[in-house]
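Q: What would this chain look like folded?
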Amino acid sequence: MSRRSRTLAAGLLGVLIGAVAVGGGLALAGGDDGSVGGRGPFMGMSDPRAPYDLRFIDEMTMHHRGAVMSARMMIGDSRRPELRGLARRITADQERQIKQMAAWRSQWYPTAEAPAMGMHGGMGEMGGMERMPGDASDRMFLRMMIPHHALAVDMGKDAVSNASHPELKRLAQEIIDGQTREIAEMEGYLERWYGEDSTRGAAEPMEEMMRQMMGGGE
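A: My prediction, written as structure tokens:
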């Protein structure tokens, strides 16, 4: 793998690890005054002074973009038909949800500033990344996307309780239902194909994960 491809691969893995690491230490990020606008299991990528629903839209949009890009690049051409199908479903469902959230953002918050690019902002530049050898890409995707989905479920549950717009509450429940099913699906693949418990990927030392991703040497 070339130096450029190693850098791109490390960047993509870093996006997933970053979201998982943030998600693992999440607390309700409320302001000192306990205002609803600052609440939620957010990733710290939006203005804590903004309305809750706007923060949810911006952060879930960034979170979805990371999942879509990862699915396309890591399992979109997997040799396993189950994972190719999963990639198509993740892409279709989450792109549709991104489009819906963008429409609501324009309608509900027409004067809001454009959201920051955040940790997923540079992912569009990774289109030339080479695939990892063998099953490494499939395995890594499952390890990292399970906790990535779990963070979306946590965000969705909080939005069901705290969002102001009924439409957003319904979308949050859709996210909970869909990604909970996909978590169970991915956990089954990880156990059946690799004999692994789904909790291992998030706790495994980053050095080992990077070594596997880069193919173990020059």
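The two ends are 7 Å apart (CA to CA).
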